[in-house]
Write a structure and sequence with these properties.
Layout (H helix, E strand, L loop, with lengths): L2 E2 L1 H5 L6 E9 H13 L3 E3 L7 E9 L4 H7 L5 E9 L4 E9 L5 E8 L11 H10 L8 E14 L5 E13 L5 E3 L3 E9 L5 H8 L9 H9 L6 H14 L7
């Protein structure tokens, strides 16, 4: 695929955005990439790299309030995480918010890499959290680490972006348990709601169906035997069916 730079990516504004998530496996991903290349999709290239490792730490209250807001189907909810973009070395505190219309917004502020697990000594980050979320730094603690590798594609018309996450692995700080999603692939399609989607056609042809999943919620379901996870166990079973194997935890 031809490359697209981060600067070009930042210039693409999807003002009337629709987000859709899909789960598939690596064998099907090869066919998706072949079809995308034939359709003229471009791949994000940064520092000569087309695969970008991500390391994220999710924060929550001792009672897992953010997890249970999602589990209990609250439309208005938040997630708080720190994220390191491994190739560039950039790290951020990020606050994701979903409103009652299903729209997701993300705000972030830069932090130092050593603050991924503990940023209470950073007054700017603490003030940013208090301003843009329902929580203060005293309310939350690190709960879970996620690691994955991401590929990002853009269609020729610059009306949709596709993030493809592979090699997903999780570590729960509360329980000490670890797990991974084997060869599962999580795809998120962000498209301009006014434009036709080439990628939806590709996914339909390959029988890849939408499946709304949260990495944080799936990871807690797999690694916390005490948490109430009934709603998300259905998602875990769906992923196991897609990869043709049981997911295990150590």
């Amino acid at each position: 695929m031809a490359p697209i730079t981060l600067e070009e990516m930042d210039s693409i504004k999807l003002m009337n955005r629709i987000d859709s998530k899909y789960v598939t496996n690596e064998a099907t991903l090869e066919r998706i990439l072949e079809s995308a290349a034939a359709a003229g999709y471009r791949v994000l290239e940064s520092g000569g790299q087309r695969k970008s490792p991500y390391d994220s730490v999710y924060f929550d209250t001792p009672e897992l309030k953010m997890f249970y807001l999602h589990h209990n189907r609250r439309l208005v909810r938040q997630k708080v995480r720190t994220r390191s973009y491994v190739n560039s070395g950039d790290s951020f505190l990020e606050i994701k918010r979903k409103n009652n219309h299903g729209r997701t917004s993300k705000k972030r502020i830069g932090i130092e890499p050593f603050e991924m697990m503990e940023f209470s000594g950073n007054p700017e980050a603490c003030a940013y959290l208090a301003k843009h979320s329902w929580f203060t730094v005293e309310d939350i603690r690190p709960v879970l680490e996620t690691r994955f590798t991401r590929i990002t594609l853009v269609n020729p018309a610059l009306t949709e972006r596709l993030t493809i996450d592979t090699q997903l692995a999780f570590r729960n700080f509360r329980t000490g348990h670890k797990t991974d999603l084997q060869d599962a692939v999580i795809i998120e399609l962000k498209q301009d709601g006014r434009a036709a989607s080439q990628m939806k056609g590709i996914l339909l042809d390959l029988r890849v169906k939408p499946l709304r999943v949260s990495k944080y919620c799936i990871a807690v379901t797999l690694t916390d035997p005490v948490a109430k996870t009934g709603r998300f166990k259905v998602k875990v079973r769906a992923i196991e069916k897609i990869i043709g194997n049981h997911l295990t935890t150590i």
